[in-house]
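pasting for the record
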Amino acid sequence: MTRWLAEYAWLPDHAEPTADVLIEAEDGRFTAVTPLTGGDAPTTGVEVLTDAVRLPGLTLPGLANAHSHAFHRALRGRTHGGRGDFWTWRDRMYEVAGRLDPDSYLALARATYAEMALAGITCVGEFHYLHHGPGGTPYDDPNAMSAALVEAAAQAGVRLTLLDACYLTASVDGRPLAGPQRRFGDGDAVRWGERVTAFTPAGGHARVGAAVHSVRAVPAEQLSTVARWARDRDAPLHVHLSEQPAENDACRAVHGCTPTRLLADRQVLGPATTAVHATHPTSADVGLLGESRTGVCLCPTTERDLADGIGPARRMADTGSPLSLGSDSHAVIDLFEEARAVELDERLRTRRRGHFSPVELLTAATAGGHAALGWTDAGRLAVGDRADLVTVRLDSARTAGVPPVGALFAATAADVTHVVVDGRTVVAEGRHRVVDVPAELGAAIAAVTP
């Protein structure tokens, strides 16, 4: 058994953190979460053993990064000069995609996932479409790139949901894949499903879900094939949705409806589905997402970096869509920044303050993200849940003098001191226990960039 004594801990169904909480775990699960002082304290004495690891600061549930493209980390700082938009950025992304192989992807993803661990992320959803070798030729193991990602997560010490993306066409009107895009394709959705079905992740830290890359990349008549594959396996299903107005315009031109309507008609939406971005939905689209209880993953730092726009987060949540968060292109890896950006972007959009409570933002960063990735037993400091926790300093230059309840609006990834995943300490005193993150990032990125 392992014990931690948290100076403050944010417990389920509490509006703000609780002081002096003893947290105990065994076999990767929380076995006791006991406030030692205040109104929640037990009436009988609780023995605090001297072997309890003390956690100064605020302890939170493990954070979940529900949307990642690991190889995009190599683009940080390389695409910010000059003008352009999502589409010009995408050309630079394809250049990196063309240089990766299973070994270089393992190195880059290991370092990227370890950076996530340093930021308090205990679980990541990898939206994976870089499947094959140059020109689209499969590797001897058709899932070699998937295996590299699973191994990278194991070495970095985080859990992984590999969201294997079906990616078949270059545009809504069916233009064929070309250039580096050929590495993404399996020919059709049936062959995509056969490849994914043949892959069983090594280790209990990973599971496989499905993804429709977008309505640009999967023909309408094949959308239901991907959705059925996910339903048959009770697996999460994710889809890029209405990230750009051009996507909406193209879908209307070809299909006579919005991407959301098309997905609804093809049985893609539902409680096991997460729409990523949903930046430009119509009012009817918001209703379709909410009524079907389709989740929405917001990626504010990427959406602002690519000049995508600001989606109607509050309206989507009120209509019934659970929210989660992702760092997507990894222009920034900081779930605290993503969480507060949901509120702050809504302020910019409406010119009013106070749209999301701290608990709502914390839930999106923790339990909401884990649920979107199929880990419904994670994201809470609660008995029986997976023993994930993240401790944040309250005495840094950013957090000094900030009450614990305000930490979500003050802390950054740099304030994370302690990270536990499934009961195992991955980060202690702000350092990853296995990976020299800066050195490995530098080497891995240099190997795949000019």
